[in-house]
Amino acid sequence: MVEQAPAAPAAPPAPGAHKSLKEGGTVVPVREVLWGNDAGVRKFETAEEIPPEMRDLIMRLLVVQADTEFASIQQHRPWLDSAPTLEDRWIQARIVADEARHGLQACRILRDFGAEGQSRIDGLLRTQEGHHKLDAFNIPFDSWADVGAFTCLVDRVGVYQLRAFQECAYGPLARAMPLMLSEEQLHLNFGYNVLRRMVREGPAYCGNREEAQAAVDKWYPRSLDMFGHSHSRTSEMAIAWGIKRWTNEEARNRFIAEINPLLEGIGLNAPDPEWHRRIL
Description:
One of its GO terms (biological process) is phenylacetate catabolic process. The chain is an all-alpha fold.
């Protein structure tokens, strides 16, 4: 039976929001923009309604989101027949199916942007292994510990990115979040349990604590880099437009506050947040 990691604390809305987000990753459906320059007005429901600058920003964010989903499939694929237990293989197959659906969901939203959106979809489908936008998704899994650390750490970053879109100003994107977040929780619990079992059961399961720690050391700094630059103009614009509710630095700090105690609770050490970082 898969043991669940302790649930992440629900994030409050950004300053200026006047509706509440429910605890536990779900939201109160609302029709008006909750934060940013357009707080209080009706959400944008079609691509044609969106101002040009905001339109380009949404498409860029969707491309990155879809690219990470498709890249993750490529990383997991070689391990579908190599996982140590039948349950692991089954869960990993579910994860791959989820990633494919999430990538498709992002592409469906991109399709609403007409020829420009379709052009970006075509580019996504042509992207080969090793040429994805974020460094963490260009690195193959060399061990089962890599699979566990990646899904525990990197997929958790993905959850924070999705939660930043919760009840955003673009209705179609906001409505896609609840199901995606629900499915992503499986990924986090899977990765957490792989690392936990490696530490507690060792070779009786697969690997040992040292291998698990080495994988955490490998993926932890890359996870923090995924949030982007701390003082990002794009991040500030996304908040102003009501698309994301946290800055990169705020989201990264929330991630650290959640993941460090989880790692310590299973006998692993979280590296210093600035260790081996490339993007600060």
